[in-house]
Structures are given as C-alpha cells and as structure tokens.
Amino acid sequence: MHYILRKESAITGEKNYEVLASYDFPLFCGCTNEKEEEDIIARCEFGIFESGSIELLKLIPLDLLYQNGHGAGAVGALWQKHHEEFANFLMSFKPKSVLEIGGGHGKLAKECLKLDEGLEYTIIEPNSSTKDGRINYIDGFFEKKALEGKKFDLIAHSHTFEHIYEPNKFLNECAQMLLDEGGGG
C-alpha cells in the first residue's frame, strides 16, 4: 500500500516528532462479509510533535479508505436526537443555502429541510448511497474546485473534521466559500 506520509504537523507545521505508537490494523474494521484473510492491513503509526499534538503519520489514500462509503445511515434514538438538535441550531442562523461536507446518509439535511422546505441544500460526499430529490449531491471529496465557485450561507460538517488530512487548508477553503461571512438571514 502506498501511504501519504505526514512530514509535518497538519495543525502547527512543526517538523520534529517522536513515534508514539505503531501497529498493524485492518483497514475496514467493522461489520463485513469479507473473509478475514482478505482484509487489507494498514500500518497505523502515530507521532507526537513538540507542541503535544498527536497525529497519524501514515495516511491511507482517501480513494481507498472511502471506496465503500462511510456510515450505514441507520441511527438509534440518540443519534436521531443529535440530528434534530443540530438541525435546529443550524437553522437558527436562517440560512438560504447550506453546504454539508460529508453528509453521508443525508439525515441532517432531511432534518433541516423539515424546518425550511425552501432551503437550498448541497451535500458533498465521496460515495453517497441514498439520494433525496430535494438535496443537491456532489459525489467527491471536499475541494473548493469541486464546487465551481459556489458560495453558501452556511457550511456544516458533523463528525467529519477527524477525517480531514489538511485541516488548515480545509478551514481556509470553507471560509472562502461563505457568502457575506456566512450566517444567512
């Protein structure tokens, strides 16, 4: 496997680190119908930088990591409540357009659309499996160029930030895609 090697902290930019832990790990650990001997084993290596930031040093190429999507879409009462409350929070800013990064199954989008049926909602997701006709889908990873100069009142991501390999670049690109500094209404 060809890893993406992190040579400096994604957060601070510092280059000095010490390997904290290194072990082999099945890439698709979870419920699977695949035979154990067919698992892809990845070398999981964490480093600690002088600032104390702990980061994964060997990154799996995203096209391999997310080839089968992420998240089943089935949620229990606790996660349903999470989506409802997060939607209420987002919609309190009265946005007219929302971009959700890593929207997966579309649960948050559907909760937001219950609160405002006229909302323009876009999800960017590498492998969206269930599609709702009220939502604009962009199949791919978040990149400013993938959105062709579009701007949004609000950009949301839930349980996505830990999957971002270049967090500073990600946040800068999000900021550039907000209309009038975001917030809607």
Automatic annotation (TrEMBL):
The keyword Methyltransferase applies. Keywords: Methyltransferase, Transferase. One of its GO terms (molecular function) is methyltransferase activity. The keyword Cytoplasm does not apply. GO terms for biological process: methylation. Pfam families: Methyltransf_23. Coiled coil: none annotated. This is Class I SAM-dependent methyltransferase.
